[in-house]
């Protein structure tokens, strides 16, 4: 049980930092991380992708190295 609580806390910290770096709502993603844990990773990746597309435009090509 302790490992599960630590996992959810680590996920919350991860989502908080990564959302801050991606200019998303850091507090909201921190709360999502503490509630859903690692199950929120696909939602977070999609939110990052949509935010990047909104910032650069939907018809532009984005190359990641």
Overview of the molecule:
By secondary structure, the chain is an all-alpha fold. It has a domain at about 1-45. Helix content is about 70%, strand content about 0%. Helix 1 (about 1-20) packs antiparallel against helix 2 (about 25-35). It is elongated, with a radius of gyration of 14 Å. The model has no long low-confidence stretch (mean pLDDT about 90).
Name the shape in a single word. Answer: elongated
If helices are DSSP runs of H or I spanning 4 or more residues, what is the number of helices?
Answer: 3
Strand content range: under 5%
Nearest-integer average pLDDT: 91
Order of helices and strands: HHH
**How would you classify the helix and strand content by structural class?**
mainly alpha
Radius of gyration: 14 Å
